[in-house]
Each structure stands twice: as structure tokens, then as C-alpha cells.
Specification:
Layout (H helix, E strand, L loop, with lengths): L7 E11 L2 E11 L5 E10 L7 H32 L7
Antiparallel strand pairs: 1-2, 2-3
Length: 92
């Protein structure tokens, strides 16, 4: 028997410009079938001497938000393992 689930991840990206400074913010959200809801955040800054390539800031901010989300999901898994086995597990 095969079981299949689908988890959707929502990605929001925003850019903020102040003179030569630009920041890109990203937020990713996950709601699992069991109702677990997590949000990851990431940010990237454009150096004043860098060229104007918004895609790079978006890619960095989203990758950092996904990394944050991944860390949170590992923590939830660690807590579930401990709750179900009584053995602590530390995510690496």
C-alpha cells in the first residue's frame, strides 16, 4: 500500500529600497496535513557597489527562509521522536 501526501509551501518576497541600499525579505509558510504550521524568514542585502540584479536578492532571501523553515521542521521531528519513543534526538 502506498500513501501519498502533499504539503504546499507558500513563498512571499518583498523588496525595500532606500537610496543605494536594497533589502529583500522572504517568508515561506508550510501547513502540514496534521495542522502543523511553520513560517521561515530570510533576508538579503544588496551592497551599494553591486549591480542591480533583484533576482540574486530574491534567491538568497528565499534560500535563507527555506533554511529557517527546514531547521524548524527538524525541531518538530525531534520533539515527535522524543514524544513517541522517550529517546531524545538532536537534529544535526
Amino acid at each position: 500500500m502506498q500513501t501519498m501526501k502533499r504539503w504546499d509551501v507558500d513563498v512571499v518576497v518583498a523588496e525595500e529600497n532606500e537610496g543605494d541600499n536594497a533589502r529583500t525579505w522572504a517568508e515561506v509558510g508550510l501547513i502540514a496535513d496534521d495542522g502543523t504550521a511553520l513560517r521561515g524568514h530570510g533576508m538579503a542585502r544588496k551592497h551599494p557597489y553591486d549591480g542591480d540584479v533583484p533576482e540574486i536578492g530574491e534567491e538568497l532571501a528565499v534560500s535563507r527562509a527555506l533554511s529557517d523553515l527546514s531547521r524548524q521542521l527538524r525541531q518538530v521531528a525531534a520533539e515527535d521522536i522524543n514524544d513517541n519513543t522517550g529517546n531524545p534526538w538532536r537534529p544535526t
